[in-house]
Amino acid sequence: MRIVNLLADGPQDYMAIDRLQRYLHHEVSRHREPDTLIVWEADHVFTAGRRTADADIPHTDLPVIRMDRGGSVTYHGPGQLVIYPIVSVQPPADVVRFVRRTEEAIMAALRLGYQLDTAQVAGRSGVWILQKQQQDAKICAIGIKFADNTTMHGMALNVSTDLAHFQRIIPCGLADAGVTSLVQLGISTSLTAAAEYLIPQLSQVYAPLQQRTHEDLTIASPQSISQLWAAAHRHPLNLPNATGTPWHPHTVSDYREEQ
């Protein structure tokens, strides 16, 4: 598995990374590129999944982009570690199993690196902090999509994220849950340090699911990353309907189409 680490470049435009991941998804699904983890930090943006309801975005002064993943709306921005696994998996595709393995890897990394106890919540994706007499608080959001037996999109771990941005939306459409970060829990760390704990755990849990289990964990060089960017910009970007466009409140026709 190859690591494409873009953290040194600072916050990235969401749609620029989306182009890169779609190019890699196209190539990985055809086994022309190795399974890849894109490791990056986003500039301020809200992304709206297919289940986003009008009430989930009551007001915002940040861009809201519709995406072809499941779930509702979430925030991406500085201080958040985002990892996109582009992994060719053994058929049949089982998105629930892949999400659960991803949750387990994140939980193991947080326990190993920061002695932080986290949990899975039945019926809700992501990694959670559970405290008595308080709302469950999500520390890592997960949204995975399968196409051609290959994964895309991924996870967003709140490291030093400004959580005030989540107050402008109903994160993941869950009005009865909160959001937290490592910093809010009293843990001071960097995105790079968090990635160094998380990546080996992801590699370990994904190995039994991969079609190509012989791949070693490697780090892409700056030159190879530049070549990937160039190839992604040359590749025709065929987006699903409405993906990458501004989100607007649902109309009746939208609702009927999604059903």
List the helices and strands and how they pair.
Elements: E1 2-5, H1 14-29, E2 36-40, E3 45-48, E4 64-66, E5 73-76, E6 80-86, H2 95-114, E7 119-121, E8 124-129, E9 137-147, E10 150-158, E11 178-179, H3 191-206, E12 218-219, H4 222-234, H5 252-258
Parallel strand pairs: 1-2, 1-12, 3-4, 9-11
Antiparallel strand pairs: 2-6, 3-5, 6-10, 7-8, 8-9, 9-10
What do these coordinates show?
- The structure is a single chain.
- The protein is α/β, with parallel strands linked by helices and 259 residues long.
- Helices cover 28% and strands 23% of the residues.
- The chain is built from 5 helices and 12 strands.
- The strands form 2 sheets. Strands 1, 2, 6, 7, 8, 9, 10, 11 and 12 form a 9-stranded mixed beta sheet that branches. Strands 4-3-5 form a 3-stranded mixed beta sheet, with no helix packed on it.
- It is globular and about 50 Å long.
